[in-house]
């Protein structure tokens, strides 16, 4: 392994990593903003909204992300009214095409993840909120969304990690993120082993940061839950000697 080459190309890989992090964070944030209202409508009693959102999530979860990226990047330019509209100034840029595709794809998965969390909210908590006179909007804000998001947090953290790895597909539309930068360096140095091992270690570092962040967030959101230590329950659980003494007193 050529350690000198790794040290030499590391600044270039870090520069690509910054674009990877930017794409991931922005697409995840936009996806979450889209997914929250969609998840609420997905669980609503109105079938028109529920079925329309189901179709959206089915299409984006049922087709490869790479195909979606190609359709937006290459396909938008084939539509005449798009080329003649203001939207073309955005859709002709590979960065915005990647960001739009990743956001819509992430929103589809996040919608179903949040839907599962909302469905798992205990009915007793909702009934208690109704008994306290909370309005529908207040129940959503104070009960349904906080509890549902906490229940969905492990699955959502996994989706964020998947989005990080999926951001490597942006290199197929000329974006020089981490993987794209690595491929460019390999084409110049003919040393794929050192370059892609370094890129893989950077991806692992980013994954560790994401997992650690969501682990801390999950513990913070569950801090109100008190775990009962069995060793502290000695008063409520009499020992064998106490039971024998009590039985002797009853016998006498």
Which strand-content bin applies to the residues? under 5%
Overall pLDDT, averaged?
89
Major beta-sheet overview? none
* CATH level 3 topology: MetI-like fold
**Structural category:** mainly alpha
CA radius of gyration is 26 Å
Domain ABC transmembrane type-1: 17-214
Keywords: Cell inner membrane, Cell membrane, Membrane, Transmembrane, Transmembrane helix, Transport
Membrane topology: Multi-pass membrane protein
InterPro entries: AA_ABC_transptr_permease_3TM, ArtM/GltK/GlnP/TcyL/YhdX-like, MetI-like, MetI-like_sf
Kindly list the characteristics that best describe this protein.
252 residues; mainly alpha; flat
Question: Could you explain how this protein is built, in words?
Answer:
This protein is mainly alpha-helical and 252 residues long. The protein has one domain (3-251): Orthogonal Bundle (MetI-like fold), CATH 1.10.3720.10. Helices cover 77% and strands 0% of the residues. The chain has eleven helices and no strands. The N and C termini lie far apart (85 Å). Residues 246-252 have low confidence and may be disordered.
Summarize it.
Residues 17-214 form the ABC transmembrane type-1 domain. The protein is mainly α and 252 residues long.
Task: Walk me through the topology.
Blueprint lengths: L2 H40 L4 H16 L2 H9 L6 H4 L4 H4 L2 H26 L3 H9 L4 H31 L11 H12 L2 H30 L18 H12 L1
């Amino acid at each position: 392994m050529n350690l000198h080459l790794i040290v030499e190309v590391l600044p270039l890989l870090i520069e690509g990593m910054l674009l990877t992090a930017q794409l991931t964070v922005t697409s995840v944030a936009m996806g979450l903003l889209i997914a929250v209202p969609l998840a609420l409508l997905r669980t609503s009693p109105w079938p028109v909204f529920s079925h329309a959102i189901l179709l959206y999530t089915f299409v984006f979860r049922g087709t490869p992300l790479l195909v979606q990226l190609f359709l937006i990047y290459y396909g938008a330019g084939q539509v005449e009214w798009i080329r003649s509209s203001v939207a073309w100034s955005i859709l002709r840029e590979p960065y915005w095409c990647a960001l739009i595709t990743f956001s819509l794809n992430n929103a589809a998965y996040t919608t179903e993840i949040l839907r599962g969390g909302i469905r798992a909210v205990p009915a007793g908590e909702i009934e208690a909120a109704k008994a306290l006179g909370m309005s529908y909007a207040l129940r959503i804000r104070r009960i349904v969304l906080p509890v549902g998001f906490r229940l969905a947090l492990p699955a959502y953290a996994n989706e964020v990690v998947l989005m990080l790895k999926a951001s490597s597909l942006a290199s197929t539309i000329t974006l020089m993120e981490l993987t794209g930068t690595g491929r460019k360096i390999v084409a110049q140095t003919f040393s794929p082993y050192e370059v892609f091992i370094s890129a893989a270690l950077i991806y692992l570092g980013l994954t560790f940061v994401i997992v650690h962040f969501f682990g801390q967030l999950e513990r913070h959101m569950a801090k109100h839950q008190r775990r009962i230590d069995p060793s502290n329950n000695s008063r409520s659980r009499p020992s064998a000697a106490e039971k024998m003494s009590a039985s002797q007193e009853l016998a006498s």
